[in-house]
Amino acid sequence: MLSPTAFENPCPTMTEVNASSEAPRLEPIDRPDSWWMRLVYWITKRTLGRVITPVKVVNARVPGSASVAQKMNATEKQLSIDPELRFLIKSYVATLNGCSFCIDIAQASAQDQGISIEKYDALLQYETSDVFSPRERAALVYVEEATRSTSVTDATFDALRTHFDDRAIAELTWLNAMENYYNLLNRPLNIGSDKLCAIRSDIEATPARHAA
């Protein structure tokens, strides 16, 4: 794996997805009423560098959804699927659904974990690009088909089985469903990128600027 500082372009821009500068359709809540949401705001800012827009737009109005997100994030960390493949799946599904917020937070998370994100710009050509392994292609075909039609053909599933065991297939299916869940929260409400990846890049670049 590469460290975040090894990336020449740490925030790739394959396509300007959902690049609208329009505000979210619901007003972000900057000062939540409950102690629970104030805690969520504090943790989010400490972890990500800012209180992300979905928290201020959705979680603040549906406080229980913050617990759901917390549990899903914890579950993802326990998956046996390698982090780079998880990044590719989440990024590709978010791209299919036009969720720029989700693409950005996936890139920021990858930077935090030291995951190479160099394949991101080639995702739209994954079926023909030689930077992807047959295993990665099989996973991407599976999640694309499931995302587009909510089902997959026997041929797609059989191809997946040649690379993944039953546990990994269940994990891939869950990860795809989780990403679609987040995409469907953000897109209808016009929640775009929070520039989290750029924040990470600025943090990484600051020591170098001071050293110079």
Automatic annotation (TrEMBL):
InterPro entries: AhpD-like, CMD-like. Residues 80-144 form the Carboxymuconolactone decarboxylase-like domain. This is Carboxymuconolactone decarboxylase-like domain-containing protein. It comes from Longibacter salinarum. Residues 1-25 are annotated as: Disordered. Coiled coil: none annotated. It comes from the Bacteria. GO terms for molecular function: peroxiredoxin activity. It holds the Pfam family CMD. The lineage of its organism: Bacteria, Pseudomonadati, Rhodothermota, Rhodothermia, Rhodothermales.
